[in-house]
Model the fold of this input.
Amino acid sequence: MNSGGTDDDGGGGGDDQIIDESCCFETIYRELEIALDPKFIGNEERAIHRIVDNMKYKYNNELKGILLDYSHLKFVSDLGRIIDDQPYIYWTIGAHFNTSNIIDGQLIRGKINKMGSSYCGTMIGGCIDATIYMGDDVDENLVMPYIRLDQEIIFRVQRFESSNCFIEGIIDAKCFDKIKQLIPLVDNYFE
Done:
């Protein structure tokens, strides 16, 4: 599942491909090698869970995304191994990892669940809060007929804080053009 866009210059979020909020997440099975201090002999499973829990909400190169959760964790082999006299025992574990690949510049389509005087918000995938502001290059009065609770919205990711599960988004001129093309105007809009 590709959630990063596919523009020709190789950048992940520079194109104007719209990603549905459900496509920002992926569940994959991977095997990882985890290093344990010998003091955890006899408590390997608890130590592995603690280490993987500490990997949550951070980008992981092996998973190619931000780890949100995991399930079905298991040891791939019955024995750990020592590599080149290192002071650790390496265990290979397998699990289903839930990851997110939200990147700055990406266009995301979501449903508005909150509104304020200068912003609207949406919940991406039920776990990442997004607050969306109007860009300087759009007329707020033209955008407002499209902004209603439970209405779909398209916005650009300005900043993603994985540790806080928070997105700061913006509706810029390109987003507004996409909104006008793809999202119906609210019929009962009154100033």
About this structure: The mean pLDDT is 85. The chain has two domains: 18-22+104-182, 23-100. The first helix runs from residue 44 to 55. The beta strands are 18-20, 25-36, 59-60, 65-75, 89-100, 107-115, 119-124, 128-134, 152-161, 166-171.
